[in-house]
Amino acid sequence: MPTNLPPEYFEVEQRYRAARSPAEKIACLEELISTIPKHKGTDHLRADLRRRLSNLKNESQAKKGAGKRISAFHVDKEGAGQAVLVGPPNVGKSALVAALTNAAPEVSDAPYTTWQPTPGMMRVENIQVQLVDTPPLHREFVEPELLDLIRRADLLLLVVDLQTDPVQQLEDSIALLQEQRIVPCHLKAGCPEPTRVTFIPALVLANKNDDPSSDENYEIFCQLLEDEWPLLPVSAATGRNLDRLKRMVFEQLGIIRVYSKAPGLAPDFGTPFVLKQGSTVEDLAGKIHKDFVKNLKLARVWGEAIFDGQPVGRDHVLHEGDVVELHI
Ligand SMILES: Nc1nc2c(ncn2[C@@H]2O[C@H](COP(=O)(O)OP(=O)(O)OP(=O)(O)O)[C@@H](O)[C@H]2O)c(=O)[nH]1
Ligand SMILES: [Mg+2]
């Protein structure tokens, strides 16, 4: 217990201990957290109280749902893919989600600010990708439901703070995830026990690269990394490289955009069909309607096909940007 807590802390703590109802406990915990001075010595205490608050809120939400337990950690996937931001406290996960999406998670210089996931939609050209802000990873306790959220993700954005020992931060995050059998895809080859392991594509974001003065930090970070990572220096504060981030997220998601067109009409480039890389004409037909799969006779493709309007079969593999005319 840190010794420099103010007297109000102990007053509120007494009330918290005496509180009976979950609503009272939640109110006291919120007040308690606000009385804690923000510095390193109080990190553990703040993390512990936030965890209790998160559990209480989840429990009371579950009760309201009349038996249906809807966890705050269950985020329904939306858009072309779900990228979950993961990392230690204070690296700027919430700031990145706030800068890139329509969501407004709390950003604060106090560590352990975020206690539950917040999804937001990020526009990447003509598609939307879901970003999910999460509570920080913590060596002593990781919410099991946070791990489930991470396991379900299409992409992990491993965030580090370029100004605060990013190599250690990345190693800690990876070690913690590996202990839970979650391994970034490109470390698959070196994984000693690949059974029962969830492999997820990952991109490292070296945040707080606000201007050229921190480029040297980034270069040193790159040199010190043992493994080859897909990585990008960014800044939530100044917006540096956020456009490149969007592009890289799109690439790492392993998706393609395909446009359908009716015979004799122009394609609608505003609303692509999003498919996994390697998808075929038949997969596209399935996205449109199951009858299309059954009745598909041929398709014509513009784009990566040998010539414009080339007739292809249902097994033809589509590429990013292809325009497809389905004939049934
Ligand atoms: N200079 C600079 N500061 C940043 C940047 N991004 C975030 N910050 C600051 O870093 C602090 C932490 O930001 P948050 O977004 O709350 O960090 P977090 O990773 O969500 O923190 P937790 O919720 O505790 O896990 C805040 O004071 C932000 O203003 C950045 O790109 N550059
Ligand atoms: Mg946060």
Structure description:
The chain is elongated, with a radius of gyration of 24 Å. The mean pLDDT is 90. The strands form three sheets. The chain has a six-stranded mixed beta sheet, with helices on both faces. Strands 10-9-13-11-12 form a five-stranded mixed beta sheet. It has a two-stranded parallel ribbon with strand order 5-6. The chain is of the alpha/beta class and 328 residues long. The chain starts with 6 loop residues before the first helix and ends with a strand. The chain has ten helices and 13 strands. Magnesium ion binds next to helix 4. Magnesium ion is lined by residues 93-94, 113-114, 133.
Topology, number of strands = 13
Order of helices and strands: HHHEHEEHEHEEEHEHEEHHEEE
Report how far the terminal alpha carbons are from each other.
Answer: 71 Å
Strand % is 15-25%
Strand order of the largest sheet: 2-3-1-4-7-8
* Small molecules held by this entry: guanosine-5'-triphosphate, magnesium ion
Task: Give a quick summary of the entry.
This protein is α/β, with parallel strands linked by helices and 328 residues long. The chain has 10 helices and 13 strands. α7 links the parallel β7 and β8.
